[in-house]
Amino acid sequence: MADAGKGQRPTPSPGNNEPSTSPPSSMSRAHLTAALDETLMWAARATAAHIAVLYLLDDTEQLLLMQAELGLPGPVVEPWSRMRRGSDTPVAASVRQGERIWVADPEELAHRFPAASLLAPYHFAIMASPITVDGQVKGTWALIWPAPRTPQPGSHEGEAIDRASRRMSELLRDGGPPVLAAAPPRILTPSAAPEPGIATAAAGFAERLRDGCVAVDLHGRVTYVNPPAAELLGGSVPAICGRVLWEAVGWLRDPYFKDRFRAAVVGQRLTSCTLAPPHGDPIEIRLHPGLSGVSLQLTRVDQAAHEPDGSPASAQPHGVHNLLHMAATLTSALTTNQVIEVVTDHMLPMCGVQAMTILVAEGGRMRIIGSHGCSPELLSHLDCLPLTSVGPVGDVARTGRPAFLGDGQDPGGQGLDAIPGGMAAWAFLPLAFADRVIGVCVLAFDHPRRFAGAERATLTSLAGMMAQALDRALLYEAKDNMAHSLQTTLLPRRLPEIRGLETAARYTPATRGAGVGGDFYDLIRLHDRAAVAVIGDVQGHNMAAAALMGQVRTAIHTSVAADADLGADPGAVLRHTNRLLLDLDTDLFTSCLVVHLDLRLRAFSAANAGHMPPLLRVPHGSAEPVDVPPGPLLGIDPDAEYHPVQVPFSPGAVLALYTDGLVERPDTHLGEAIAGLAAQLTQAADQPLHLLSETLLDCAPGAEQRCDDIALLLLKHQPPPP
């Protein structure tokens, strides 16, 4: 949609002082999209903002997709076209918090949003306002001005922002959700065409200059180029004019130049850089931004301003910027998937990479753990490649030295044709950490590159940061898998069969990063019509909690076996287990609920050591918490007493035992949460138990980021047929 004439919204007339208020009820999707664009452009005009953007949440509500933008050339908008809801940016924060975010200058941005400051180190002020429909945030929109600005808008600006926010909310509520635009977003263009006489005079002025002059519009297209500029760029006026700058002049794809271009557009300040084209002497490029585009002034400079290897001295800040940005974002990556997401979302657009593969060394071979944009042939070629293989991947894995292939650079005699994928240049970077190589990062480019010294150093440094993050993630995942495997092993593999009792059990671990928990359940068969059910939770989220959970289960089994002839009194079982935990002298405490089921008597007895109350749903009735007096947690008081209660357990009744991870919410009273779970059990109790367990687990808070594990044990008195 970024192409000229496609998906472009006609500019409202200058006399239109506010967005259209026509009834949206009969709007088509196209009209809805046009109305949103019109409102965004109106808000920019009313507040004198030079950039405006519109984001909407995708179907997962975890990703913000840029739908439309005003004031940013299409080719430089890619790093911001998609944004995770949890990212450290004002735009994402406005969605998470559901409130307007104001940032007055770069210093405030660095203080409140350090990662965003590293990603966009430009001079700008920003306002981001959520778009709320019936109490739910559906997206956000933002305005950008040159910095600095006052922390809050003036009355006129504030009124315009309020009106635009209300209008967008009304459109999304009454017109329905628009079809989310695929990247790139719609580019909205203000009407700023000069009068014919002025345009002719300006062109004549530029033609007479000896410096190169290039004009680029907000689509990134070259609208004017004089002959000296065409010569410096390595082309001709007809070959360059009318094309997107980066497509017409391939060597301007350099990430540092794009960064300077973004700095000029976002901050509305003069910026400059010096680059070495492949066809001649270095060129200084001065970028003069305006509301309708950017003017480039090109001047040939002395070779002395360059590094010994030919890379521009002024390109060094680009490397520093990338290093700082990757350092900030990789620190929050906990798993290998998160590391790969960071690289895919941020590093690839900055460095102009079209395809990437990350390999780790395992058992003398390279294993692919992540990739982006790679052909099946390339993946098949790289996966399981022996470390002893001849070629750049094997050489880098063995020596730890990077290899670059392109523009005549040919490490080890390895030709481009020998690597499938049809790319024009390759970078093979060692993932080295603590004097060892843990893998190789393969980057592919669809255009030739010289890989000058500064770029090689930057890419190698980025790979080093990736290696540290991957090493940490791989170690974490190994420990996490081991802990969860231990915990799963300590839980019963299957529940015993007891005549007249239908059972179902589920254990759901906490999401990664919360640690392994100590929740457990058990069902111990006494004879063909009696059993002891147990549910419990060991304090903590670590290996010690999982190990203690196994000891508690063993203690309960021992106590039940010793007391089986006396009916396995739940209070006696808890007293015996409590004394054992005190003898172990552990610092961890345990909650536990023990239930003795007697199907012949159609009743159960229960004793409680500080645990959640069980829920009982009687046939054709509602589910209610069973009032079992809670005694002290296990492992605290050597004289603790646990008094059981007797409760009828009629045929068709369902008993639910659960841990606190199923009900505890930071914003809800525990009693209300338990009542909500009881209501769900009442509605769904006629489901088969295996489906009922899934239904109840769906009630758990924080499915995306659950900080506690869950154990659930369902018991239904189902008399056998006569």
Number-wise, the strands total 29
Q: C-alpha Rg, in Å?
A: 33 Å
- Total count of helical runs of at least 4 residues: 19
Ends apart, CA distance between termini: 71 Å
> What is the helix fraction of residues, given as a range?
25-40%
Can you lay out the helices and strands and say which pair or pack?
Layout: H1 29-47, E1 51-57, E2 63-70, E3 82-84, H2 90-97, E4 101-103, H3 106-112, H4 114-119, E5 124-133, E6 136-146, H5 155-174, E7 186-188, H6 196-207, E8 212-217, E9 222-225, H7 227-233, H8 237-240, H9 245-248, H10 255-267, E10 271-275, E11 283-290, E12 293-300, H11 316-330, H12 336-351, E13 355-362, E14 365-372, H13 376-382, E15 385-386, H14 392-399, E16 403-405, E17 425-433, E18 436-445, H15 453-490, E19 501-508, E20 518-527, E21 530-538, H16 543-563, H17 570-584, E22 590-598, E23 603-609, E24 615-617, E25 623-625, E26 630-631, E27 645-648, E28 654-658, H18 670-684, H19 689-697, E29 710-717
Describe this structure in words.
By secondary structure, the chain is α+β, with helices and mostly antiparallel strands. Strands 1, 2, 3, 4, 5, 6 and 7 form a 7-stranded mixed sheet that branches. A 6-stranded antiparallel sheet has the order 15-14-13-18-17-16, sandwiched between helices. Strands 20, 21, 22, 23, 26 and 27 form a 6-stranded mixed sheet that branches.
